[in-house]
Specification:
The protein is an alpha+beta fold and 132 residues long. Helices cover 45% and strands 14% of the residues.
Length: 132
C-alpha cells in the first residue's frame, strides 16, 4: 500500500481512460455507486500527477488504483477487494476475495486480465490501445 500526501474527499479510482475495457468496467462501477462514494479519474488526467505524485506512471499503466480518503492507495486485486467493501451491491464478492491466503491468486488473475485488457476489449483507433 502506498500513502499519498493528498487526502481526497471521496475514494478515488484511478484507471486507464484510454482503455475500452477499463472504461467499460468503470461505467459498471459508476452504475453500482448509487451513493456517490467514489470519484473516477483517468490516469491520463493531469490531476493524477498533481494529486498523487507518489503513484508511478508505470504502475498506473499496469493496474487500477483506489486512493481512499486517508490517502492510502491500493492497486490491482487489493483495489478490487477494497471496492467490494465500499459498494454494498458488491458485498457478496467480498467473502471469496477476502478468504485468507487467496490474495496471490486474485492478484495473478488481475495481472492476467490487465495484461490482456486491450485484446479483450477489441481493437482501438490509432495507438490508444498500445501498452508501453
Amino acid at each position: 500500500m502506498i500513502t499519498t500526501a493528498t487526502r481526497p474527499d471521496h475514494d478515488t479510482v484511478v484507471y486507464d481512460g484510454a482503455c475500452r475495457f477499463c472504461r467499460g468496467q468503470i461505467g459498471f462501477l459508476r452504475r453500482l455507486d448509487v451513493g456517490g462514494r467514489l470519484r473516477f479519474v483517468s490516469l491520463h488526467d493531469a490531476a493524477v500527477g498533481r494529486d498523487f505524485p507518489e503513484l508511478q506512471a508505470e504502475d498506473l499503466q499496469r493496474q487500477m488504483y483506489v486512493v481512499d480518503t486517508r490517502g492510502r492507495a491500493r492497486g490491482g486485486a487489493e483495489a478490487v477487494r477494497y471496492l467490494t467493501r465500499r459498494l454494498p451491491v458488491l458485498w457478496p464478492l467480498a467473502l471469496p476475495l477476502h478468504l485468507p491466503g487467496t490474495l496471490p491468486l486474485w492478484s495473478a488473475l488481475y495481472r492476467l486480465v490487465a495484461r490482456h485488457r486491450y485484446a479483450i476489449a477489441g481493437t482501438c483507433a490509432g495507438d490508444a490501445c498500445r501498452l508501453p
